[in-house]
Amino acid sequence: xxxxxxxxxxxxxxxxxxxxxxxxxxxxxxxxxxxxxxxxxxxxxxxxxxxxxxxxxxxxxxxxxxxxxxxxxxxxxxxxxxxxxxxxxxxxxxxxxxxxxxxxxxxxxxxxxxxxxxxxxxxxxxxxxxxxxxxxxxxxxxxxxxxxxxxxxxxxxxxxxxxxxxxxxxxxxxxxxxxxxxxxxxxxxxxxxxxxxxxxxxxxxxxxxxxxxxxxxxxxxxxxxxxxxxxxxxxxxxxxxxxxxxxxxxxxxxxxxxxxxxxxxxxxxxxxxxxxxxxxxxxxxxxxxxxxxxxxxxxxxxxxxxxxxxxxxxxxxxxxxxxxxxxxxxxxxxxxxxxxxxxxxxxxxxxxxxxxxxxxxxxxxxxxxxxxxxxxxxxxxxxxxxxxxxxxxxxxxxxxxxxxxxxxxxxxxxxxxxxxxx
Length: 422
Ligand SMILES: CC(C)(COP(=O)(O)OP(=O)(O)OC[C@H]1O[C@@H](n2cnc3c(N)ncnc32)[C@H](O)[C@@H]1OP(=O)(O)O)[C@@H](O)C(=O)NCCC(=O)NCCS
Description:
By secondary structure, the protein is α/β, with parallel strands linked by helices. The protein is built from 14 helices and 23 strands. A hairpin with a 2-residue loop joins β7 (137-138) and β8.
């Protein structure tokens, strides 16, 4: 159990380091606050903040506003699908947003021992950080206190974030004339992320969202996600936000899964889809040869015939980026218990020096462990230091299992290295 935990924490470490000091805007729709697991989602976000993520929370309140309008007997008036906010409606908006803001602030103040935030003081700030202007008169209809975003106090928000505070934004913006305006909270989330040049935008959603990743253009293939949400994610990507994550509220722990695991938890929408590692198939031989043939010609990799590759293809995994094969590795069985040989580790020269080979090795080690292997051998002529830096120790051809020794090419004189997997 404790070993499992240590293993999970180790696997999360690269993500924890990668997100430290990065800015993330998270949009929580009003539906989130109606759920029993609202506090759990909020605590997960607070945990990410505790791990160094700079966090801006944008709170939607549509169902809460709706509820107050109904209680006050005020009919909802829409024009072009946009709420007309008269003075009475604005009161309901203020009450709904105010109540929600206080609920979130109270939850994030939870400091009792044995609670998810136990002992840690989380500071939350909100205030006049969003400037709005009236939408005005549309087709002869006065939208009254319905407003549009004019400016976000990005510098102030950055200062708060740098000082370790969580910033809370709601759907009310103020104007230099001292009035309040009702804004669309999801638009505010995108605008805040864009103006803060956030690294990430998390869009939590009350709907089903499949796990995976895609480009903004490929979002069209996800017909089950409502167009409004797809278009929001697309606009966020167009606004320059590198990674937009659509996360279903229904999936427990979705925020932590998305931020700190390889598998993720929701749908990552990114113009620059990240690398994936997958098993190779027979259809990949041509792409694989394109990657390794130049290295074979340089004598860096042992030449493998097409036939040999076909025989071994099930032992290969490939790194793919935007459909292109940019890296590979093979994990070949050895005729000795719990031993395997890592071979043919290569990364396309234009994608080197960014941790990709290390990621391929980590994935190979994970597969090896899963297959009950705890001794990994590698034979290399030019990358000895690289493997030593990855925890391999220099060994000798005599240490190889006997039948592999017979195949050892003494002329090539590769160095043999070994790694004990824990
Ligand atoms: C070795 C190889 C797989 C590394 O790929 P990569 O994605 O650049 O590796 P990483 O980003 O994880 O590591 C990069 C670091 O390793 C260093 N490195 C790269 N190749 C190295 C080598 N042959 N020997 C020693 N160090 C090496 C880089 O200088 C870099 O360190 P730095 O940024 O501190 O200077 C790649 O260079 C390659 O494809 N080489 C040809 C094939 C090969 O030799 N394979 C090994 C035999 S199976």
